[in-house]
Amino acid sequence: MPVHLLARCRGDAWGPGNRRGVGEGRGTESGSPGWEMDADPMPPPRFGRGSMGGTQSLALPPGKGPHQVGCADVMVGHTRQGLFLRLFYPCLPRTGAERPLWIPRYEYCRGLADFTHRSRRWCAPLFSIAIGSCRVPVSWNGPFKPCSSGYPLIIFSHGLGAFRTLYSSVCSEVASWGFVVAALEHRDRSASATYFCKAEAGREEWIPYQRVPQGQKEFYFRNKQVHQRAEECVRALRLFEDISSGKSVLNVLHQDFDLSVLKDGVDLTKVAVMGHSFGGVTAVLALVKEPSFRCAVALDAWMFPLENTLYPEVPKPVLFINTEKFQTPESVAKMKRLSSRNSQTKIITILGSVHQSQTDFTFLTGKLVNRFFGVRGTLDPYKGLDITSRAALAFLQRHLSTAWGGGHAGRGLGRARELPRSQGAAGRPLPPWAWVWCFPSRCTKQRGPVAAPPLCLEPG
Q: How far apart are CA 187 and CA 275, in angstroms?
């Protein structure tokens, strides 16, 4: 049974959903009133008067974990069958570190215009003016921070119409807690734009977004794409296996980041897959295709493209973190099919959030971009990221390894333990589906149910 996580008090937790997620339908979900959840104090957002009218946020939030975060782009191969990803990783401090642009090329503004059914001629320049100067608060090609035991690895899959940089906030947050995160840019034509470099003098070939062809059923078109996406997740894992084995891997982008530093820096026994929307269901399918993936985190997963026959084959636990305004009863029913087969699969819902609340757009938008994308809910975006990342990190900590013992990835976050059923609010027994969520700074009380069974984060 899904549990509805409150970021504030609400009497009637649910109303009809009427906000359409970008390109992936809309939905409502029945639920019950929730509980109040107190988040740790959030950093105040930095605002300024945007040139496009209204107040606009000027910066993505930095990771709050104990590690500084580095970032590098990696492209392998000279064909569509290669890989393109952005790597987020713990790095050593460096004075005067360059921060990469959030939208790395103007071609991506054109792709976003195409995806949103807007004119390239006027919309792409407007996007470029409004958000083209935003930078990611990470160290571009920063020196990799050595780790004798190796960092756990997360393969991240983007949503429909997105690309590798649009989830920088959640990826850098996870990396700041001691993970290496590989954010893929898929080449199944579900990205708003992507490219690869041909062998002839580095010539680029761009791959545009493709809509469902006229006369073709959407399920069959998207199902083919989700299988290609999951296979790309598996190929990304193979890339890290090659690096760890000492094979020479050429980054065709010729950047300053040396991939060989990852040889002893990634623990390939602790690998998970994560994604948003179309990437969420991609993460679920990747568990079927690759046994080395030990668990998956699905952010507001779009379950529609996955065939019913595969649900019994999902072998590992999944954490579904849903938003309030996107999921349909049919989609949640599919998630419940997985939770009924695996007691460690959880479903939570963050009230006050919309589908794009789990992307970077929620931090960067004023009235202009919000009008095109519908990216702001009533929940403060910084609090939404905090809730999402804490839930994901606790789940990853639990399922990737119990042997960290307060090590690099768990330090400062807390340890997970199950609670007796009698430790509910006001001493009342917990319902059979409740998962207690407590933050390290105030871990003596129940702060709100997240999923089952009862779990608590103790100080690390």
A: 15
